[in-house]
Amino acid sequence: MDFMMILNNVFAFLEEVVSGISIGSGLKAIGAGLAVFTGFAAAIGEGNVAAHAVDAMARQPEMAGNIRTTMLIGQAVSETTGLYGLIIAILLVM
């Protein structure tokens, strides 16, 4: 409950900051486009992690469960960077 309240306050603050900036819509679109590129970087990193995890599972099949769990946690953490970029892009476009 407290986390959601903090998150709502952060989003409200970001909306005030973005709406207070008087830049052209073209620059907002460029900024939103750059923010979306974080998703590409996250995807490349996640693919690299998955490739190395499959390689590790092939070398040590008995550790496959632990490797898979660690890989999924790492990918969930790295996916947040792409989501943050998407949120920033949406806020810039609004």
Secondary structure blueprint with pairings:
Blueprint: H1 2-20, H2 25-59, H3 64-93
Descriptive labels:
F1FO ATP Synthase; mainly alpha; 89% helix; 94 residues; single chain
In short:
This protein is mainly alpha-helical.
Task: Please explain how this structure is put together.
This protein has a single domain (2-93), classed as F1FO ATP Synthase (Up-down Bundle), CATH 1.20.20. It is 89% helix and 0% strand. The model has no long low-confidence stretch (mean pLDDT 80). It is elongated. The protein is mainly alpha-helical and 94 residues long. It is built from three helices and no strands. It starts with a helix and ends with a helix.
